[in-house]
Amino acid sequence: MVPADDEHKSANEAEKNTSTRRPLLEKLKFWKRCKQEDDKPARLTPMPPCLMKWWTPLLVAFLLFALSFICALGWGWQWHWPSSNAMELCMTITGAGLAFSAWQQRSHENVTHEQNRFDDNQRNEFWQNRESAHALLNANSYAQQHEAVIRYIEMSDHINKFKHIFANSGTHHQEAILTTLCAHVRKLGETEKTTLSELERAHLQEVIIKQILQRINGGPWNRLQVDLSETHFLTEVTISDLNTESIIYLNKSTFDHQVSIKAPSKITVYWEDAEFHGKLTIAGTSSTDEPTKSIIHHDNLPHKIDVAMFQNVAFSKISGSATQTHNMAIVETSNEHGSQHSSRYFTNCYFIRRNDHFDASYTLKLFYLSRSTTQSHSICTAYLPESYSWATIDFQDQSRTHTQSNH
């Protein structure tokens, strides 16, 4: 039998050892990375292929001998046959040139071999990290899945840092990492596919989403497709200062909490059939002088929104859409407390479309839409760039359809 105090003491000691072991492991990882940086060979400017020929040292030696022999012949501004000492000097210069040229070739070959060995080690480390990250991501532990996400992010940075190693497959590996993380965000939203608590799953989603947004904002994942369709988001989503060429797919996704988009420059998103249970807020920086300063290219405005606030932002229909009209659904539902309106607030918003053939610019009188959407008042006139033209927005009353679908 072990006394209770001893059990409590041993538990505290184990917890203390764990807490002290973690910083030690972090220091070891940092020391390992620093050592790898120190072991990295210096990058040399590649020598021209002609200087790496076997006859190059002989040619250098012959040129040095010819120059030194000519100088010895005309030494003192009088042509004469060189003395034995002068000939020894010529041969010394020739031997030095031959030795230096051969040493330079050998040194360059050694550095090249060392660089190739370093590159092979980096490739092997990448594949080992990928295998371990894949195993950790499938574990039923929050800590292990969090570690897997960190390793995938480090792999992405690794590829971006050593571009010469992954020159032919870097983009493919980046796409694979992004696809894996997006799939895991989708998996975390499905309760039956994981044993983690909702709070842990929400935090993991938050970590992954932040990393994705950071890397598509002019980073290594810019221009890559972000497929977050059919995803149940358990955490709040905040997007700030995003300017990306990536296309974000949110088809049939559900957001339980607030979604905020602040000061976007350019976003392309498919979200017409996404569902927002929380508040959707978009606050851009567009104005009548620069209507497209904050622009969101989309398939259509989301139809299933409880509360939405749009301010100083331009909405552009994606080229090739079936219609160039922006549709906004107005739904009135009823519950035990009476009827409720799904609120939509627009302030200084611009509804445009791209010109496939770059038509001339047009002017449009912007209107303030009343609650009934039947009255309007002209407030200003704005100009668009040549690549855009004005579109229309259609407010559709879907209360009857929504009520029938509930029954």
* Largest pleated sheet: 7 strands, mixed
Proportion in β-strands: 15-25%
Find the count of extended strands (DSSP E, 2+ residues).
Answer: 20
Query: Roughly what percent helix?
Result: 40-55%
- pLDDT averaged residue by residue: 77
Rg, please?
Answer: 34 Å
As laid out across the biggest beta sheet, the strand order is: 1-4-7-9-11-16-19
Q: What overall geometry do the principal axes of the alpha carbons give?
A: elongated
Instruction: Return the structural class.
Output: alpha/beta
Q: Low-confidence spans: pLDDT under 50, at least 5 residues?
A: 1-31, 357-380, 400-407
The SSE order reads HHHHHHEEEEEEEEEEEEEEEEEEEEH
Tally of helical segments: 7
> End-to-end distance, in Å?
65 Å
Describe it for me?
- The protein has 407 residues and is an alpha/beta fold.
- The protein is 43% helix and 24% strand.
- It has 7 helices and 20 strands.
- It has helices at residues 4-39, 56-73, 84-137, 142-161, 170-188, 198-216, 399-406; strands at 226-227, 232-233, 237-240, 243-249, 254-255, 259-262, 266-270, 275-283, 295-298, 304-311, 314-317, 325-330, 332-335, 338-341, 343-347, 350-354, 363-369, 376-383, 388-390, 392-397.
- α3 runs antiparallel to α4 and α4 packs antiparallel against α5 (170-188).
- Mean pLDDT is 77; it is low at 1-31, 357-380 and 400-407.
